[in-house]
Specification:
There is one protein chain. The protein has about 130 residues and is of the alpha+beta class. Helices cover about 20% and strands about 50% of the residues. The chain contains two helices and four strands, in the order E-E-H-E-E-H. It has a four-stranded antiparallel beta sheet. A hairpin with a 4-residue loop joins strand 1 and strand 2. The chain is elongated.
C-alpha cells in the first residue's frame, strides 16, 4: 500500500467518462475525476483543526477550478491547447461527500468531482 508523503494531501483517480451527440459534426465528451483531499487528525492535530484545514482546502481547490475553468495557463480565459478537432470547453468542480478513513493514521477526507468537457469536431479529426 502506498503511503502519503504530505499532509494535507490529495489523490486523483479517473471516475467516469461519457459522450453526448451534439450534431452531425460535433460531439461532447466528459471526463470525470475524483479528487480526494486528506487531512490527518488525532495526535497531529485536533479533530476541529482537521475540519478547519479541510474546509479551507476544499474552498481553495474549488475556487481555483472556478477561476481556471478551461485549465488556462495564462489568463483564466485561455484554454488548454489540444490536438486539432478537440476544444476544451469547461471544467466543473462539484464538492461531494465528506468522510473519515483509516490509513496509517485516522484521516478526515472530502471528495471533489472534476468534470472536463471537451468538444470534438469530427470533421477536423477525419481530415487530419
Amino acid at each position: 500500500m502506498a503511503e502519503f508523503s504530505g499532509d494535507p494531501c490529495a489523490t486523483i483517480t479517473p471516475a467516469t467518462n461519457s459522450a453526448d451527440y451534439r450534431s452531425t459534426s460535433e460531439n461532447e465528451r466528459i471526463y470525470a475525476f475524483n479528487v480526494v483531499l486528506w487531512c490527518k487528525r488525532g495526535g497531529v492535530r485536533t479533530d476541529s483543526q482537521a475540519e478547519t484545514i479541510l474546509t479551507d482546502l476544499m474552498d481553495s481547490v474549488t475556487r481555483t477550478f472556478d477561476k481556471y475553468y478551461t485549465f488556462g495557463l495564462g489568463s483564466p480565459g485561455d484554454a488548454l491547447a489540444l490536438e486539432t478537432g478537440y476544444t476544451m470547453m469547461m471544467v466543473e468542480a462539484a464538492p461531494g461527500e465528506w468522510f473519515y478513513a483509516g490509513r496509517e493514521m485516522e484521516y478526515r477526507a472530502a471528495t471533489l468531482t472534476i468534470r472536463v468537457h471537451i468538444n470534438v469536431d469530427v470533421t477536423l479529426i477525419a481530415s487530419s
